[in-house]
Amino acid sequence: MIRVALPAHLRTLARVAGEVEIAVAAPLTQRALLDALEAQYPMLRGTIRDHATRKRRPFLRFFACQEDLSHELADAPLPESVASGKEPFLVVGAMAGG
Amino acid sequence: MSQVRLLVGTKKGAFVLTADGKRERWDIQGPHFAGWEIYHAKGSPADPDRIYASQTSGWFGQVIQRSNDGGATWAPVGNEFRYDGVPGTHQFYDGTQHPWEFKRVWHLEPALSDPETVYAGVEDAALFRTEDGGASWHELPGLRGAKGHLWQPGAGGMGLHTILLDRSHPRRIFVAISAAGAFRSDDAGETFRPINQGLKSLYELPDPDAEVGHCVHRIAMHPSRPEVLFMQKHWDVLRSDDAGDSWREVSGNLPSDFGFPIAVHAHEPDTIYVVPILSDSLHYPPEGKLRVYRSKSGGDEWTALTSGLPQRDCYVNVLRGAMSVDSLDDCGIYFGTTGGQVYASTNSGDTWEPIVRDLPAVLSVEAQTLR
């Protein structure tokens, strides 16, 4: 199972606590992961990716294995340790500054 | 026993305030959707326990929430607002044409007789409708056909913030848009036309009498007299006696005719309320005194209502959606401030009391009268 850590506001919206686990068919990519996440939690549609363009919303970031994967191509493979469930895929709200 | 429910949208969540018909003690529930901006929440006239709320965030975009039990519990419904066909372009700050881009829902207006049907006013300005309780939303593109390519966002965004439905003309819809103006449909939203004749924007537009481009802040009507509309424009308070075909200024003796909300008394169609704000760049009350102004003559002659409101050192704003009235015999008037206070008057504005003082900045207030 793929582990996904959502920011607090999206956990509340999805009514989950802690990480969520989703099944994703190989090969694991950002697109496949987010498609599966939205299928399991339809209320998240439009909150991580724009409905129309399917692009990441500007003030969200994708981290895993201490790397910023936000600018990786949607169909690029995700790290093996995310695919194996060893490491979570983090959806992070960008810093607001201040 | 009658009850009043206030749906309060704030910068950091929604609150549901309820009281019995005396309106002396208020129960405050919330925050719902804590941390999110709640631009607007409104109940269905056909089923007051059916409430829709616009939940939005710079990070996470738009969510629409629906309650079927008067705001006790909520569930997200559809949140896809896709412009009809090729979205096209509107005027942008730099003079170029800019593609329409959905940002958020400013206003939700449930239909008068069907709780499943709701109109949504969005930024960039457009009108959407659901007929399945919010599961899916479809644009009424005729609105943007009303010279939409000439609309240009103001500093606050190009939001469609006001939707008025007319019970005596079921196919009539009024909308108002920041920095675009007021518009009317007489064919259930199929087509719209600008209704801005008589508006003058001397310092905001190169042509003060332009057909579109006026920064209308709010329009209001009394359901018993839907031909009469009242408008708070960027500057100027105006009145129309012909369903918006023409307007005349009724600012009269107001200390400032800049402001955001305007509301009509529930039982007196010529009694109207505004909250004067000092200027377009100084969004607080003149002299640091929070004063609601009431006209009992449909404009021109105004009286300051101050009892119970802070009369010194007050520098809050009252936003366009943050004033509402109930329909009890002693008409209740309510407004919320950017300082987080919600004030209530249970005697048509003669005296005021704060219901709550320290909410997040209030974006919207909607009163429901439950019998």
- Shape, principal axes of CA atoms of chain A: globular
* Category by helix and strand content of chain A: alpha+beta
CATH topology annotation of chain B: Methylamine Dehydrogenase, Chain H
Low-confidence regions of chain B:
none
**Residues in β-strands, percent of chain A:** 15-25%
Averaging pLDDT over every residue of chain B, what do you get? 97
Number of strands of chain B: 30
CATH superfamily of chain B: YVTN repeat-like/Quinoprotein amine dehydrogenase
Can you walk through the features of this model?
The complex is a heterodimer of chains A (98) and B (371). Chain A has 98 residues and is of the alpha+beta class. In chain A, strand 3 and strand 4 form a beta hairpin. Chain A is globular and about 35 Å long. The model of chain A has no long low-confidence stretch (mean pLDDT 96). The model of chain B has no long low-confidence stretch (mean pLDDT 97). With 371 residues, chain B is mostly beta strands. In chain B, a hairpin with a 7-residue loop joins strand 12 and strand 13. Chain B has one domain: YVTN repeat-like/Quinoprotein amine dehydrogenase (Methylamine Dehydrogenase, Chain H). Chains A and B meet through helix 1 of A and strand 6 of B.
Topology (elements, then pairings):
The complex is a heterodimer of chains A (98) and B (371).
Chain A: E1 2-5, H1 8-14, E2 20-22, H2 30-40, E3 60-64, E4 67-68, H3 80-83, E5 89-93
Chain B: E1 3-10, E2 13-20, E3 27-32, E4 37-43, E5 51-57, E6 61-67, E7 75-76, E8 89-91, E9 97-99, E10 104-110, E11 118-123, E12 126-130, E13 138-139, E14 160-165, E15 173-177, E16 181-185, E17 193-194, E18 216-221, E19 229-233, E20 237-240, E21 248-249, E22 258-264, E23 272-277, E24 292-295, E25 303-305, E26 323-325, E27 333-336, E28 342-345, E29 353-356, E30 362-370
Antiparallel strand pairs in B: 1-2, 1-30, 2-3, 4-5, 5-6, 6-7, 8-9, 10-11, 11-12, 12-13, 14-15, 15-16, 16-17, 18-19, 19-20, 20-21, 22-23, 23-24, 24-25, 26-27, 27-28, 28-29
